[in-house]
Amino acid sequence: MKKLATLLILAIFCACNSPKESDGSSKKVFGNFATETYAQRSEGYDYIIISIDSINDQFASVIIDARKDKKSPTCELEVFARIVNENTLEFETVGSNTAVIQSTPEGIVIKTKDESKIDDLSFYCSGGATLADEYLSVDLAESSEDFWNSYPQSFELQGIEFNLYASSNFMFNQILVEPSGLEITNRSEVIPFQGQFELAEIEDLNADGWPELLAMIRSNEGKMSVIGYSVNNGKSMSMIQLPALAEDDPNASGYMGQDEIRVVENMLVRRFPIYENGKATEKFRQLQYKLVDGEASRVFELDKVTEY
Asked: What pLDDT does residue 235 have?
């Protein structure tokens, strides 16, 4: 009797712990995926491939590409998506709507949270194509991993560290900043912007003993701006920015872009060639800014203007 009871207990234990057939609901959203036409690529079919990798527990990198060995790619996108759970990612579309990447038993599906905004997913494609589709899990013959060879860019000052990632789409891009060493919150932040990321610098601009991380952005018109974060007493960080020089700015006379912005000691310096009647002169104007406390946040205040 004792032996029979033992066998029954073992049988129940094995039944409870034996692996079950997966219905796909536990399949993670990370990995490599492609449209079903990827299997027919040798026959000349077009296809879209997607690589999804987690950056941390908050964000994932999503790199979407299309066949480019025989033609210009129909769809391209690099984006940082928020991790909702292991089966779902979300990112903001150019129409400020929410796109969803969700796992399926066979791979993933891309759609918009609001079905009426599905046309937003056509913006990243040409020729009437769209990202809205189902994709199969695949082992890619080619991948988009080379994009991340130069990232993250890492910066450290005064005990605070930052990892920075930047996408490189034609127009609409993002910067992801991943801090560490802050006392209260080390939450990653994503900043959307238009243009191309050029470089980043770190410095204690307001001499308060805590660093600022600055990303220099160049617009498609060749004008520079700055976005970044300032550390608040070692506890958290707040966004700071220096917009592109506005046309009605009194210091914009003769300005046609081509400016450079760099950190010089604890100042932010913008330098650009001066144009007259649409032609470049041999003169340059330099605008020097200091970081000060504003009413709601820190702001860049013009400190000095020189011409030479």
From this structure: 97
Reported as a pLDDT band with limits 50, 70 and 90, residue 148 is low
**Domain-by-domain residue ranges, the chain?**
31-145, 151-307
- In this structure, how many other beta carbons lie within 10 angstroms of the beta carbon of residue 7? 10
Q: Is the peptide bond before 243 cis (omega within 30 degrees of 0)?
A: no
Is the confidence at residue 6, as pLDDT, over 60?
A: no
pLDDT digits (tens, 9 = 90+) for 168-186: 898 899 999 999 999 999 9
AA letter at 160: I
Q: What is the Cα–Cα distance from 75 to 62, expressed in whole angstroms?
A: 13
Contact 38, 47 (CB under 8 A): yes
DSSP secondary structure, the chain, as one string: -HHHHHHHHHHHHHHHHSPPPP-STT--S-EEEE-GGGGGGGGT---EEEEEEESSSSEEEEEEEE--SSS--SB-EEEEEEEEETTEEEEE-TTS-EEEEEE-SSEEEEEESSGGGGGGGGTTBSTT--S-EEEEE---SS-SGGGGGG--EEEEETTEEEEEEE---SSEEEEEEEEES-SS----EEEEEESEEEEEEEE-TT-SSS-EEEEEEE-TTS-EEEEEEEEETTTEEEEEEEPPPPTTSGGGTT--S--EEEEETTEEEEEEEEEETTEEEEEEEEEEEEEEE-SSSEEEEEEEEEE-
What pLDDT does 212 receive?
Answer: 98
Structure tokens belonging to residue 251:
């210091």
Residue 36: partners with Cβ closer than 8 Å, 6 or more residues away: 136
| Residue 21 pLDDT class (50, 70, 90 cuts) | very low
CA 266 to the chain's CA centroid: 27
